[in-house]
Design brief:
The protein has one domain (8-155). The chain has helices at 13-21, 43-53, 61-108, 112-155. The chain has 156 residues and is mainly α.
Length: 156
């Protein structure tokens, strides 16, 4: 039997982020029967989804918003950590790329500059993918907090 995950305030982070990430990407597409997110074609449609899904029964919206802000802070720290780690790794890999490229040159008889360019492109693409995902999560939390705070003001 599968154990249910704990979701504070009934908030499923993975499901909600996947819904946010797919805004406008599924427009006009045939979707699988068991998709793992809600389809929203526009940002305003996603806002309405969040407003309708926001836990209305919460007695203290302040606690929920504080929890959301905590999730945002975790993602911002993770983003900064990625930046702090990726830059030295990128510099280190570029500095040792000469040894790697000379080995490739010896085996495959390829000019050294081509190896450096290929290695640099791979490193940059990998870094961009990681940074983009982290930035998208930070933006998700900021947008979600903005909408929930709007709901709180309307409720009060």
């Amino acid at each position: 039997m599968k154990k249910d995950k704990y979701n504070p305030y009934g908030f499923d982070k993975q499901y909600e982020f996947k819904t946010y990430k797919r805004i406008g990407r599924d427009y006009g597409k045939a979707l699988p029967k068991r998709k793992r997110y809600t389809t929203c074609n526009t940002y305003s449609e996603w806002e309405k989804y969040v407003i309708n899904k926001a836990p209305i029964e919460i007695l203290n919206y302040g606690d929920f918003i504080h929890w959301l802000n905590g999730q945002l802070r975790v993602e911002e720290i993770f983003l900064e950590a990625i930046k702090c780690i990726m830059i030295p790794v990128y510099i280190a890999l570029l500095s040792i790329s000469e040894a790697i490229v000379s080995e490739i040159n010896a085996r495959y008889n390829m000019p050294a500059w081509k190896g450096i360019v290929i290695l640099s492109i791979i490193i940059v693409i990998f870094s961009i993918i990681i940074l983009y995902d982290s930035i998208e999560k930070v933006n998700f939390w900021k947008d979600y907090i903005k909408i929930v705070e709007g709901c709180r003001q309307n409720k009060d």
